[in-house]
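# step 3/5: fold
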Amino acid sequence: MKKSKIIKIFLVIFILFTFSVFRYFYVKNISKKFYGFINFSKMNISSIQDSFIDKMYIKNKDIVKKGDILFEYNTDLLEAKKKTLLAKLNLINEKKSLVKYKEQKAMDEYLNIKKDSNSTYDINLKLQELEEKQLEHNILLANENELKEEINLLNIQIQNKYFKSPMSGKIVSLYLSEKKYVRINDLILSIIDENEFYIESIMSLNFFNKIKNENLFKAKFLSKPKLKLDIALDQSIDDSNSSKKVVKFKVLSDKSIITQIDTDFINSLKVELQRK
C-alpha cells in the first residue's frame, strides 16, 4: 500500500515535470513567432490621351520592366484631326500672304498721302485702313500659332502611341482591353514596385521590447510557405494605443521573389515572422 502510494506520487511529479517542460518549449517556440502584412509601393496609372486601345501587349499579373511597351493607342482619329489642322494652316498662310500684301499697300498709300496732302481727314482715313490691315494680319498670326501648337501636341500624342511602363513591377489591376475607348486621366492600370515593399507588424510594447535588439528575422508567406524572406527591424511607430507598436521591417533578401506571388490581394499578404 505504501509502495503504491509512492509510485502514484512519483507519477504525478513526472507528469507535472513533463507538462512544465512541454509548456516551456511550447511557449518559447510560440514567443518566437508573430505575424505581419506586406505593404507595397503601388502606382496607379492614368491614360495620357483620349483614344481607342489598338493593341494590348500585357495581361493582368504580368511582370514588366521599366520601358516595356504595355499597349498601343489607336491614332487614326489623331491623324485625321492633324490632316484637318494642316489644311486650315495652309489656308491661313495663303490669307496671310494676301493680307501682308494689302498691309504693305496701305502703308505706302498712307505714307504718300501724309507727305503730299494737307487733308487731315484723308490722312486719318488711310491710317485707319492701314491699322485694319495690320490687325487682320496679327489675328491671322495668332490663329497660325494656335494651329501650330495644336499640331505639335497631336504629333506628341501620335509619337506616344506606344505606352511604356514607367516602372518595373507587377501589374495587379488592369482596366484595359483592345478596342476600348479611354479618356485622358482615366485609371487604366496599377503596378506594384517589386523593389519597394516592406513588412509591417502590430505588436505589444512588451513583445517589442523583447525583440528590438535582435538583428535578423525570417518571414514566411502563409499562402506560399516555401517563399521566405530575410528581414531586419527598420523602425517602430507608436500606435494610438500606447500599449501597442506598429513595427516596420526592411527586406534583405532578393526582392524579385515577390513576383512569384499570384494573388488578387497582394497588398494584404499575411506573413509569419520568426526570430532567428
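# step 4/5: annotate
The two ends are 52 Å apart (CA to CA).
# step 5/5: archive (pending)
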